[in-house]
Structures are given as C-alpha cells and as structure tokens.
Amino acid sequence: MSLRQETTTSQRAAADAPLHAITETPLRGVRPNIVQSIRAFRVPELQGAAQSLGQHFLYANLANAQSKQDVLDLIGQQFMLSVHVGKNFDALYDSMTDPLHKSGPQPGFIVVLEHIPANSKFDKEAREQLLDIFRDAADYWGDRKIPFRCFYSFL
Description:
The chain is α/β, with parallel strands linked by helices. The chain has 6 helices and 4 strands. The protein has one domain: Barnase, Chain D.
C-alpha cells in the first residue's frame, strides 16, 4: 500500500476514532511534534497508537546498515517513499515533507527508527545529522498543525 493510499484509509479511521483516543494511548504525555528515544515504548504499542489515532506508522529497522548510504536506502525502502531518497539527508527531508503535504491532508505520523548504527562508518555526527532531519520534519509538520512523533534507538 502506498503512502497516498494509506492516507485515505487513515483519514477514514481518524474520522471514526473517538475524540478521547489520545488519552487512551501510550502517547498521552508525548508532545505532538517531537523526536525522542524509544525507551519506555515498544514498537507494537506505537503501531497500535498510530492505528487508533488514524495516523501513518513508518517503521525502519536499520540493524543491517553500516554506512550513511545503507541508512538512506533502508529508510527509503521501508518507508516506501515514492521520491528517491538519494545519497543525502536533504533528499530524505524533502521526501518526508513537501510531496506528502501536497498529496492531500495528512492525519499525522508516528515514525520509528530502530537500531540506528553506531560504528565508524556511521559515527555520532552522522547519527545527529539523521536525527536533525527528523527534528526538522517534526517542525515542518508542527507548523502545519500535523502531529509528527519520531522514536529512535541505537544499535
């Protein structure tokens, strides 16, 4: 299912969801636009929260990534981004913002980046740059009053 098709399904689910659903999810105390460590959350809980809120759930397992290119390729594949992510973080940011915004109303996003590599080919600076892209995306969607919560863990 493409992100565009998922949007229609998510919008229908959001319309059917009760208004108090956010108080019943594990995201009750989590700001609507944030990038934070996954810590106390489990992936199935976050996926369930996205479903109950009618939001997109984007998951990338980066355990097999060794380099920046591997990380970008895996995110592009696992998020099923229609725009080619390319070889840089700017293309990743672009693919998660303008094309999605222009494709129609968005219900919100819960993003999980699991097992971000921590090695010499993907060092601390590269990890921070990656997370900065998602922080910038959270700001972009926040400016449009659309929730964008990103949770991450390191390998």
